[in-house]
Amino acid sequence: MHILPPALEELIEAFAGLPGVGPRSAERFAYYVLRNDTHIAHRLSSALEDLHSNIDYCKKTFALVERGKEFSDLYTDPTRDKTLIAVVAEPFDLVALEKTNEFHGTYHVLGGLISPIDGVGPEQLHIAELIARVDEDKVQEIILATNAGVEGESTALYIQQQLEDREVRVTRLARGLPVGVDLEYADQITLSRALEGRQTIER
Amino acid sequence: MHILPPALEELIEAFAGLPGVGPRSAERFAYYVLRNDTHIAHRLSSALEDLHSNIDYCKKTFALVERGKEFSDLYTDPTRDKTLIAVVAEPFDLVALEKTNEFHGTYHVLGGLISPIDGVGPEQLHIAELIARVDEDKVQEIILATNAGVEGESTALYIQQQLEDREVRVTRLARGLPVGVDLEYADQITLSRALEGRQTIER
Question: Complex ipTM, two decimals?
Answer without folding.
Answer: 0.81
